[in-house]
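From the methods appendix. Each design record in this collection lists the tokenized structure first, followed by the designed amino acid sequence. Records were kept in a plain field format so they could be parsed without special tools. The example shown here is representative of the layout used throughout.

RECORD:
FOLD TOKENS (567 positions):
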């Protein structure tokens, strides 16, 4: 059983290897680019292997450069270790058997959710791995060698000619958990391979996947390149992307076993591109319905950021929150969180816990009681403290016609909850504070009894600076804003580098300082720790990430995430 399992898992090793190559590439592209940008060239035409992939495929991801060109970026020999562990278990010598013919593309696709389309006998995903070849004859020798070694190890080989292409496959019966739970299961443990034309070596986990891939080439209207969504998305992406992923969102949701109540976006394409300061992941979400941007695009960072201290771990800035609930971003958030988690509510409560606490404590609805009157610029920030689980918060709003009425409404809500509105002065600046009086008891000796003191607890403050109204969670944060006016995030070199990579105009920024926010994120979202372990080379070098939405097409939502990395 042990030997059979080792043999059957070769397709699993190459699938895992393709994914791992992308992770390593992300971690090291910036290092390579800074040293020798001319030597790392990616295709401008997109993945050539898309002709093998059905336009109904759930997902496809491609690395568009030869992995050996990434060798120079190694600092802990991650790539060498991967190759050793990957091919040692298959009896293949990468340097001798693969390196001579491997070209500039590795594409992995999930071709179907169930190979035989019969859910009663078990569901088995179809995997297709396409490796570009620059020497077809050598790659054919490799495929023959691979299956010869598997035959010597006991595999049952089958050879067939299908539409002019030689397919080789083997099948080994293995007792799996699926077999135990469902004796009628027809899930097999195949490895199938072929060299198609002069361009690609294909591997799959079932011969049917290879036959479908060949059909997709010979009937062009079936493959991904004929998809209008894919064609449109490709036009939106920058040239020279080093990796591309395409997702068919309704099928991805079905893959996760989810029935979405609202399906706004149909597909998504992602491209990873180099930047001298890091890596830019640009993405486009496509929809058949017209979408509404939250506000007119901004041609420069909002002025509200001048009141956000440099010590901020998370900053969100933009314009007009009044129509946020009906915007394209809100619809994307709802669909994305439902696809990944089944519900967006728990995700929001974890990531924005300080704001959720404000809602619960005051008995307010952020959308109705605050966001509804924010029609100008705004900035929201969290300031993590090592000693505190809950970070401090800042909310900056540009003055407009509805702001005074909005503040009056908050005062009324505060009063109805037993809070007092008291004037304060910090550094000659007049401030209004929402406070709560509490009593503290201190025990003395038995004769004198207990002594009592009245304490004032500040639950929030606000003041006017220039054309902005500033709200904070506590006195310390307000004092930091007033006394360190020349130390704002907008003057932070790291922030400047990050937003410089985002195209203008845009809808504003979500900026996360990874170093300052790492502990907070790990506490609020425990799965982050697992992601960090899987992507250790990347997270070890991550400095910050910045998210923005841009583009003016009413049938698509375009945006990007810039990962700033240490040099």
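DESIGN:
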């Amino acid at each position: 059983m042990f030997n059979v399992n080792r043999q059957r898992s070769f397709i699993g090793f190459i699938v895992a290897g393709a994914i791992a190559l992308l992770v390593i590439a992300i971690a090291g592209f910036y290092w390579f680019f800074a040293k020798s940008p001319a030597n790392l060239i990616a295709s401008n035409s997109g993945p050539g292997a898309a002709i093998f992939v059905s336009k109904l495929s759930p997902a496809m991801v491609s690395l568009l450069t030869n992995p050996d060109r990434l060798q120079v970026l190694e600092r802990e020999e991650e790539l060498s270790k991967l190759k050793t562990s990957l091919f040692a278990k298959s009896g293949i010598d990468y340097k001798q058997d693969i390196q001579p013919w491997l070209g500039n593309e590795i594409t992995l696709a999930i071709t179907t959710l169930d190979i035989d389309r019969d859910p009663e006998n078990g569901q088995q995903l179809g995997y297709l791995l396409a490796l570009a070849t620059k020497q077809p004859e050598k790659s054919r020798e490799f495929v023959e060698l691979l299956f010869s070694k598997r035959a010597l190890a006991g595999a049952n080989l089958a050879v067939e000619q299908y539409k002019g292409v030689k397919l080789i496959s083997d099948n080994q019966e293995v007792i799996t958990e699926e077999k135990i739970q469902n004796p009628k299961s027809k899930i097999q443990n195949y490895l199938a391979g072929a060299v198609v034309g002069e361009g690609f070596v294909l591997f799959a986990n079932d011969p049917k996947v290879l036959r479908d891939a060949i059909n997709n080439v010979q009937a062009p209207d079936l493959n991904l390149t004929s998809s209008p969504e894919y064609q449109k998305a490709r036009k939106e992406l920058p040239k020279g992307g080093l990796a591309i992923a395409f997702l068919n969102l309704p099928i991805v949701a079905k893959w996760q076993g989810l029935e979405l109540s609202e399906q706004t976006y149909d597909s998504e394409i992602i491209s990873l591109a180099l930047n001298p300061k890091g890596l830019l992941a640009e993405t486009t979400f496509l929809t058949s319905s017209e979408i509404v941007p939250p506000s007119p695009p901004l041609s420069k960072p909002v002025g509200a950021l001048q009141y956000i201290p440099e010590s901020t771990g998370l900053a969100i800035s933009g314009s007009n929150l009044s129509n946020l609930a009906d915007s394209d971003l809100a619809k994307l958030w709802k669909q994305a969180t439902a696809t990944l988690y089944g519900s967006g509510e728990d995700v929001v409560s974890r990531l924005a816990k300080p704001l959720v606490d404000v809602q619960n404590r005051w008995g307010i609805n952020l959308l109705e009681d605050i966001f509804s009157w924010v029609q100008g610029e705004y900035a929201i920030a969290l300031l993590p403290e090592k000693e505190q689980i809950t970070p401090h918060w800042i909310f900056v709003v540009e003055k407009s016609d509805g702001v005074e009425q909005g503040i009056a409404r908050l005062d009324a809500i505060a009063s109805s909850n037993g809070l007092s509105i008291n004037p304060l002065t910090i550094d000659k600046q007049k401030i209004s504070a929402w406070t709560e009086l509490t009593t503290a008891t201190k025990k003395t000796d038995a004769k004198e009894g207990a002594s009592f003191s009245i304490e004032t607890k500040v639950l929030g403050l606000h003041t006017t600076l220039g054309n902005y109204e500033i709200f904070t969670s506590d006195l310390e944060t307000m004092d930091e804003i007033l006394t360190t006016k020349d130390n704002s995030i907008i003057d932070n070199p790291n922030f400047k580098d990050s937003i410089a990579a985002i195209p203008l105009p845009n809808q504003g920024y979500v900026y996360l300082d990874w170093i300052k926010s790492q502990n907070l994120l790990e506490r609020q979202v425990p799965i982050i720790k697992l992601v960090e372990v899987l992507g250790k080379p990347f997270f070890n070098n991550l400095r910050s990430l910045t998210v923005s939405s841009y583009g003016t097409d009413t049938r698509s939502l375009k945006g990007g995430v810039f990962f700033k990395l240490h040099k």
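APPENDIX NOTE: The CA atoms of residues 52 and 213 lie 4 Å apart.
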